[in-house]
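Data deposition worksheet. Section B asks for the primary sequence of the deposited chain exactly as it was used as input, without tags or linkers unless they were present during the calculation. Section C holds the resulting structure in token form. Section D is free text for depositor observations; keep each observation to a single sentence. Incomplete worksheets are returned to the depositor.
Section A, Depositor: J.P.
Section B:
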Amino acid sequence: MLKFLSLSSGSSGNCYYLGTDQHAILIDAGIPVRTIQKVLRESGLPFGKIMALLVTHDHTDHIRSAGSLGELYHIPVYSTKEVHQGMERNYGMSKKLTNASRRNIERETPFFIPGTKFRVTAFTVPHDSTDNVGYYIEYGDGEDAVRFCLATDVGRVTPDIRRYLSMADHIVVESNHDIAMLMNGPYPEYLKKRVRSEGGHMSNKECAELIHDIWHPGIRHLFLCHLSAENNDPDLAYRTAAHALQSEGVKVGEEVVLSVLLRNSPSLVYDFNPDKKRPAPPIQLEIDFD
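Section C:
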């Protein structure tokens, strides 16, 4: 059984776990290693089975502990050559990676994590980092395969993002801000423009429209990630996405689990069962839509 856990999701740090009792991977490591170990231990998940760290981009909230995981714990760190170069320049990652820990990957070129059943494909996600990718991950083969996709820090939605998300049954996608909260909030004008730019972040409305467009009955889990502390609210992000699904007649909580991944708190541990006919478990947040 493949399990998923969000350890942290937001501008103060991002880290996601995907694994089984035999082997696991992390996506991003923007929180301290001791926190990663503590959360996994309390969640009953094995830190010692982590076989790889996949990095989306070189901003500090995604790479803070990448060097320590690679150099001290000998966990290979996978990303594009450009991201690795950006990580080398980023002072927020104090311990740098040597060639022994670094693994360069290419977009649109699937690869296996050695010793595991994880087949990974990176794809381009626009953002104002040195480089940024999302990950489409397959675990297992044929009808028993679990298909997972993550796209965060999305400046604009592209055909590639739509294509890879629509191929997955379990999706993590950015729902960073509410546009009205951002424009009427405390951010200086230059930062508002940066967030709304093609190198910035995706709003609740844009996320909901994307979810609406890619929806198919095989989707079992939709996770909203990287919410802004100042310019968003978990209930609002949830409602916006839920209403987009409900407009298509989707029964949220029955046909699909919709969950908000919080900034500084770990999520529930979710089981990704390959059986598409299995009813989804109860939703994480109880919200009245009336």
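Section D:
The two ends are 36 Å apart (CA to CA).
DSSP finds nine helices and 14 strands in the chain.
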